[in-house]
Request: fold
Amino acid sequence: MAVEKGRRGQAMGFHQTGGAIGAFIAPLVSASIAVFLGWRYSFMFLSIFGFILGLFIWTRIDESKLMDTKNERISNLRSIFTNQKVVRLTILLFTFGLLHVISYRALMPFLTTYAIAKHALSLESAAQLLSLLQIMGIVGSPLFGRLSDGIGRKPTLYIILMSQALVMYLITYSSVGILVILLGVMGLIAFGCLAVTDTWITEMNFPKIMGTLVGVAVSASFFIGATITPIVGFLADKVDFDYAFRIIAILTLAGIPILKIISDKDS
Reply:
């Protein structure tokens, strides 16, 4: 890889930081353009950047010289379904991907509603809390990435999972002032978790299918984001948000034994 092992976590963290900055800036820019020109032109304007970036990558960045041939890539992909060790690892990574940021995925869609309903905040104040999560991700990704460079990927992920569960649980008992602090911490943890997880997987002893393994974990993370939302909404309607969030906090801890099962020999 282009970055030496002792600095990969921090490098991946800075990569994730770009996403956090984009998630924070894009709504502000798109809304400002929409006010003057309408949403159609807002979407058209922002899409230009993706087109330019894609064109730049296509024309200016060379393919890796270590790229396998097409037949080798097909053979590597088939190995996922024929090698029991790889199948086991794939299943474990998918399961871990479901759990490692489940608290963040469950909290994000309902945060403004939760803050308004429980703490009687205005819509503007609740939206600011939502932005806080994204802003703290700018710091959290390189911070935890650097920590993982020092103490290791798995120890850092243990810390992140336990911290994420604790923060999610405490949110349900917090005042407004404490809620602001906890949401800031949650932003640090969630984006740090994504950076460290990606780095951890890329360093596993399966370089031929590294992209597939990363894709499995990322797909699981987005899948749980889509499925946990109606579950939390149902629980909130039947009981309340606090009860739903406490259950999610406990589920987050289920990622710890999954992380433990994954052999250090693989990573």
Summary: The chain has one domain: 7-261. The chain has a mean pLDDT of 83.
